[in-house]
Amino acid sequence: MTATVDDRSGGTPPPTRHPRAARARRSRKGALTPWMMLAPGIVLFAVFMAAPIFYTLALSFQKEQVKGLGLGGDSRTREFAGLENYVATLTDPEFLASVGRVLVYGLILVPTMLGLALLFALLLDARRTGAKSFGRVSIFLPYAVPAVISSLLWGFLYLPAVSPFYWIFEQLGWDDVPSLLSPGLVTFAIANIGLWGGVGFNMIVMYTSLKAVPSDIYEAARIDGASERQIALRIKVPIIMPALIMTALFSMIATLQVFAEPTTLRPLTNSLSTTWSPLMFVYRDAFTRDDVYSAAATSIVIALATFAISFFFLRVVQRRAFGQED
Amino acid sequence: MTVTTETRAALVPELSGTTGRRAPKDTRVPVAVGSTAVLLLGALYCLLPVAWVLIASTKDASELFSTFTFAPSTHLWENIVDLTAYRDGLYWRWMANTALYAGVGAIISTYISALSGFALAKYVFPGKATVFRILLMGVLVPGVILAIPQYLLLAQVGLTNTYWSVLLPQLISPYGIYLARIYAAAAVPTEIVESARTEGARELFIFHRIGLPMMGPGLVTIFLFQFVAVWNNFMLPYIMLGDDRLFPITVGLSGLLNQGASLPSMYTLVITGALLSIVPLIALFLVLQRYWRVDLAAGAVKA
Fold it and tell me: Which of 1.10.600.10, 3.40.50.150, 1.10.3720.10, 3.30.10.20 would CATH assign to domain A88-320?
């Protein structure tokens, strides 16, 4: 092991630098070293994460007042608005409707995605499944496709003129299938895009977690007469619970932020409003209506909701994370 | 040099935790039809849109809406020529922009994460726990919620609608730092750092010549994560950029699709563009597959 170091520094330290003196000199300077190494990260964090958060907070408590006729450069002034923007957001039926849609979307997506991911992970880990590497690579592949592109692909697959599904419906003799992008089905259509993109990633997380379990546990269970299914449900699932919690957390956070999929699909259908998801609502306020103050308040509301959901999970997760270091 | 490489090679199975897990191949049990069929069904579902785009990009504008979905045609090359001709090769400029944002951005971001993670794992200093806790909170801050205030702040210094406006905000990755700390703690033995220090090596030298190589496989994973995150981030460039010559491929194609609503001949361009954009990504994934399997685990399992 020390050979690595010896090769590099040429064996003996230069005679002028006595090791102990050098170490003493360095320990005074040494206190700064970790901070210098952390500096780029901390600066970027401060500028692009902390500052925007505080800026959003500040904006969310302000509003723009137009004096007189609103003409001329100085006619608009910012003033303190208290909780006005928050009240406006939380009582806006359009915002509440977007939250409702996303909750439905999440209720469809998250259990289906995690359920299928767990199923595939268990199948990959089971002894008697065939075509494992083909299955693993194929199911993981959509993770390489960004949400905009996958929405675009599925968007075309939903269009009656292009879709293979309508061809199947026709063969089955169903002529009055509504558009897959009609108001009643569009939430499912978007959830399907999320499912397609997310199932493989979550499968890999669970699968790698399964592989870290020593196999003697399963051997013991087999000797006791447990079936493969019992081993999967009674031993494997409880053992990878931390991975399941983590994937659930990340999936829920992603759900709240859905933006790219509905925005991309909008040109293909009339059933997606400009405020379909909460983030689209924020975008519209900030850029179409030019009301950054409301947009800021709504952002804070979404962030707080995210934190509230995450906090519980993080407590569980963090305790398991850093036991092994100095 | 060779010693370092060996250390690193020895590390991979340790991180993956798979050695000794799989029994030798000869004790193989017969394949179960049911579970294999379910897995293949999942694979089919995941490959369907990819197969579709492959076939659809061979069709011309009229065939797209008239021939059977999975009937291939012969116009792929023409479509690529048309796409290349579109506004003097704007599409390829989007590709190059994407490579810059995601590729260069992710390399720099990985280096910054490695520096921070190494400092957090291998040094004892006052304030370490606080710094880490604050950075960790960043993992939970939804990036898209930052996009609008980032836009407003960058607008004040006149940086919106530039390459910087998309590149700079995505250099910081709290999750990358979090993973880098885990990898540094697991892969770089403290004794080696100590003995290098005793030999008189400077701290940055220790990081570059000992820390970085040992963290190697983990850093590839951090790079991949960040690459996908940037490549996937639609909202930030969508908000920041007005000039379509600065667009990444996602924003560009989304704009083309928008035009397609009134000009259906655009659709073949969009479809061909979608195909060409996912080819390099899929290739990258297949080549670097090992790193997903091995090192995602190291982060995921311990988290």
Answer: 1.10.3720.10
